[in-house]
Amino acid sequence: MGASGLDHVGEFSYHCQLQRTGASLVKRYFGVIVLIAGVLLAAVMSYRTASGKAREAQREADAQRIQAEYLERVGWMRANPDEATYREELKPFLKTYFEQVDTHLKQFGGNTKFDGYLEELEKRAEGGKDDRAADRKAFYEYTRKVFDSLREGRYRPVWTATDKGMRLDVLSSDVVMVMGKPQVRLQLVLWGAQRMLKDEGKVKKMMTSASFNTVWKLTDAKGKLLGEMRGGDPSMKVDFPERYVAQFPPQMVLGHYDLDLMPIEVAKMEMTINVSSRAASGGDANVNYVWKLDVPSEWKLGAGETWEGATQEERPEEEIDPSKASAKTE
Fold this sequence. Notes:
The protein is an alpha+beta fold.
């Protein structure tokens, strides 16, 4: 063999040695590389988890701050005895609250359409898991209508009163069709009913105490009693609006009364609403609101129409006609 053959053999041996050495290094350090990669991955995941938890804690703290500031300021709105200043301060008060809500949602993310409950309801309905979806949607829409009026600066009660730190607003008094029959709908918003968050293990429930007892007295132009109506809790009572819209201003109760149209002879109405609210400490707050008004013509039946569902009962003469009671005392 010549020199070229020796050169060839030497070259062959040299490359084989390199290949063996590289394979050995890979085998030797493969476990170390995997271990380091695992540690780095765990560190990244741990950081992301900790960062996510910190972000969630910040979000929750900011939400609690907004609610705490609202509750600090709302006391005056509930108790202010002067109707004119209450109405004047109402819009800027609500504007401040909803500006804080909007800032919170932009900073931490969230549903800026405020329809999270509706989205969840639709998902459950699609899966056939909720046979009361229609009722729940009706309560959401009912609550959402009031929420939008509060948020958009359109909340203007037709009547308001306060007693013992709880305010009652009659938000509207329109004639609406209910099951094909015209009725007077008195939309109510109660501010400040006592409530308590009850922890039942996996589920937390907000328990609101607000029991209504309402009387309507109808009289003619001279004050003679023509009729009387009584009612308990209002229809569509929503005692925890945040269930449907999480950002709803806290501690309100919604509901309405539907009244039949009244006899044409009725000139005045006196509505007395008593609300009983029990505090978590055991004390009772019994508040009374009295609204006296001239009955609008659109609330009345036409000539010759009868008051359906009315019943007759005996009353003392002086209770029916105050003028006769005065005559007896003279």
